[in-house]
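Need AI-2E family transporter's 3D structure for a figure. Predict it.
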Amino acid sequence: MPHWLGSVGSGLTRLSRRLEERKARAEAEEALPEWARPVPGEDAAPEPVPQPAQEPVPPVDPPSDAPAAPVPPHVPPRPDPVAAVPWGVRVAAEAGWRLLVLAGTLWVLMRVISAVQLVVLAFVAGLLITALLQPTVAALKRRGVHRGLATAMTFIAGFVVMGLVGWFVVWQVMDNTEDLSEQLQTGLTNLKEWLRTSPFHVTQDQINNITDNLTKALKSNTEEITSAGIQGVQVIIETLTGIVLAMFTTLFLLYDGPKIWRWMLKLVPSAAREGVAGAGPRAWATLTAYVRGTVIVAMIDAICIGIGLYFLKVPMAVPLAVFIFLFAFIPLVGAVISGALAVVVALVTQGPFTAAMALVVVLAVQQIEGHVLQPFILGRAVRVHPLAVVLSVAAGGLVAGIGGAVVAVPLVAVTNTVVGYLRAYGRGEVPGEKV
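Structure prediction for AI-2E family transporter:
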């Protein structure tokens, strides 16, 4: 019985296979053109029987009046979809999705930085202060001073000097506020008189209307001013918190800077560690040169413009000089803002002639700074194109306000140094540094 069942099963299998072959043959015949189909009722051609070799028969040309045999149409094969896309489109697509990934990464990074903006700005401020004070620590250590003592001496001296500068500015402003308000009222009265007698022909009624509109605007915006005052208290608290964080960051970077750098190198993949180890010292040298050069240039600007304002008898010449020093850390924009502030104070308190002379002093000092001091002091190591400076300052200001504008240019300078070194390192043009 099992043998009989096996025979029946094998027969059914052969039968089904023959049916499938006939079905496939019928479908193939239907797919053929009309002229190539076999005549119905005609048996399939028998298999060819091998014949003995014969002499080749020369071809006989068909008669001229014989009908030409039909030629089957040629259907070209469909190309590969990848090959069908133009090369330029493929390159644009490859570059496009990579740019999208980079843009997404940058967007996430900016969101994270915005969420912890205070911590980031405090760390960057501590990094800049460390770049300013670290050469002093290194000099003391070369003279045999213990690392901890050298760090403590430099840290205390640096922040004491910065605190004294801030206290001096506040003291000068508070001490001259009463005189400045009196001179401001006198200057506004003189300005009104000058407008009435000037070629602009401004009438007293127009001046009164402007004054009334300003008064109404101040009264209508009392709530906004009050909320701005509350926000000002919050800003003061955040500023104090940031100062404390910056102080701690500076202290630990001065004391354990090399150890922190070695720990960060361990986070880098081993294949890229050698290049990063070589780029780090060069980036730090660029940052140090930028901070020291900017401090020197800012001091020269503040001293020269302060002396000019003092001889022009502009009130609060010393506080204005300190403001010019502080705003010099914002390239291009800071010089314009601080110079305009000095000119406005001179205009309101001393008149148009003194304001014009103050403007001449400010422009002269800034021209000397841009064409002599910065190229000589900063050098080529931190030279950044003016367009890159403007764009970076604008982007930093939009992202993080004044703090972002301050750190934008040194960030661009350091990035330029790192990218240039890594490009040269990838081409083998600089020797690698072992970690």
